[in-house]
Amino acid sequence: VDKPPIRRAAIFGGTHGNELSGVFLVKHWQENGAEIQRTGVEVKPFLTNPRAVKKCTRYIDCDLNRVFDPDNLGRTVVEDIPYEVRRAQEINHIFGPKGSDDAYDLIFDLHNTTSNMGGTLILESSRDDFTIQMFHYIKNALVPEPCPVLLIEHPSLKYATTRSVAKHPVGKYEK
């Protein structure tokens, strides 16, 4: 199938403020992004939850990686709205809107984990041919290091993750 090329990609770090690998990489690329830039593709490194990063805590009011659902994204902004819901609306405005043709093509969301899973890619749809091919490329580039792919597809769940704003959401977990 002929599909349009990827033109806009974002790399997120700090969705959880106590997961520092993505934070360090995003800050590095914000200062010197030459190593992530490619001809014909806009790549934007982005710190997703700066208040939680500043406090080195997972979140301030609620998990940012769980509030990108239609109810929260469409919620009226009032004074007592949770910080992460307000931040999700801002991120959706910058990189979305979620589900639209204007949404970023790719969001690569960097996380840490305490489980012994090494570097693992997270795939949300087995029908996303672009992401599957990209994962194949990444896995081959990392040989002989293993790079498992975890498929979290569910027939009825709609994912409310930060990366779900993009047309092609990618999660990367690192121990």
From TrEMBL:
Listed GO CC annotations: cytosol
UniProt xrefs under CDD domains: M14_ASPA
Family annotation (Gene3D superfamilies): Zn peptidases
Protein origin, superkingdom: Eukaryota
Keyword check for Acyltransferase: no
Pfam family of the protein (one): AstE_AspA_cat
Keyword tags: Cytoplasm, Hydrolase, Metal-binding, Zinc
Ranges where the Succinylglutamate desuccinylase/Aspartoacylase catalytic domain occurs: 6-169
UniProt cofactor(s): Zn(2+)
Listed InterPro entries: AspA/AstE_fam, AstE_AspA_cat
The UniProt record lists the keyword Ubl conjugation: no
UniProt-recorded Gene Ontology molecular function terms: hydrolase activity, acting on carbon-nitrogen (but not peptide) bonds, in linear amides; hydrolase activity, acting on ester bonds; metal ion binding
Subcellular locations according to the entry: Cytoplasm
Entry-linked PANTHER family: ASPARTOACYLASE
Family under the similarity heading: Belongs to the AspA/AstE family. Aspartoacylase subfamily.
Protein name (database record): ACY2 Aspartoacylase
